[in-house]
Write a structure and sequence with these properties.
7 helices, alpha/beta, Rossmann fold, 27% strand
Length: 223
């Protein structure tokens, strides 16, 4: 099932309870992202960037406000329905590749497809790995790869099921300059190829400028 990949956040507040009282990670955030576009979220550490991605991806519900992806108000879905929505429509990429160390690259990518009930996971996984220059490494375990290769494998896993939303949280933070540039190249190429909306949190100004739009988040507020 294809969905409209536009994103709308309306007056979103995320509040955490602490020993000293409530703390707002997001404070009235409103944001509209056109389907198929790319947006970089910049700002200091602790400003709410990862929380913002988590709310968009349905990992958490806002305390107040609404989050819509296309016609679905995911902030109103049950935890089970949010999980199903993420599995079908969203690809996550993190600074840590989070590859399962006891599975080969092929199996790591194929697991994402299996979770979506795809029966042709091996062929699709091999094709995606080949497109990202990893065909010759498909049967290797993650610990036998370089940091750049592992992060490319993480991109392959995130986009194998053709998600309409790609959420990347500091995907190049642990890479050197050359590998970081290569991962951004891949992300943008994959985003265009599958027509997805890409939202990327980054401290890298050069990487942020390569996306079509930049927004700054500080103390839970957009500027």
């Amino acid at each position: 099932m294809s969905i409209d990949a536009s994103i709308t956040m309306d007056s979103v507040i995320v509040e955490h309870q602490t020993a000293s009282g409530p703390v707002r990670a997001l404070d009235g955030v409103s944001l509209t992202v056109d389907g198929g576009s790319s947006v970089a979220i910049t700002g200091p550490s602790g400003g709410g960037k990862s929380t913002l991605l988590g709310v968009i991806g349905g990992l958490a519900r806002p305390t107040w406000g609404s989050v819509r992806i296309g016609g679905a108000e995911i902030s109103e879905l049950s935890e089970r329905d949010r999980c199903d929505f993420r599995r079908r429509h969203i690809g996550f990429i993190y600074q840590a590749d989070n590859l399962l160390p006891f599975l080969t690259l092929l199996e790591n990518v194929g697991l994402q497809l299996s979770l979506n009930g795809k029966s042709s996971g091996t062929g699709t996984s091999l094709a995606v790995l080949a497109e990202l220059g990893l065909a010759g490494l498909a049967y290797r375990l993650p610990d036998h790869l370089s940091g750049g290769q592992r992060q490319r494998a993480a991109v392959a896993r995130a986009i194998a099921h053709q998600p309409k939303i790609i959420l990347a949280d500091e995907p190049t933070g642990a890479l050197d300059t050359a590998n970081a540039a290569g991962v951004i190249d891949l992300l943008l190429a994959m985003q265009r190829e599958i027509g997805a909306t890409l939202i990327m949190v980054t401290h890298d100004r050069g990487a942020a400028k390569r996306l079509s739009r930049q927004v700054h988040l500080r103390d839970g507020r957009l500027s």
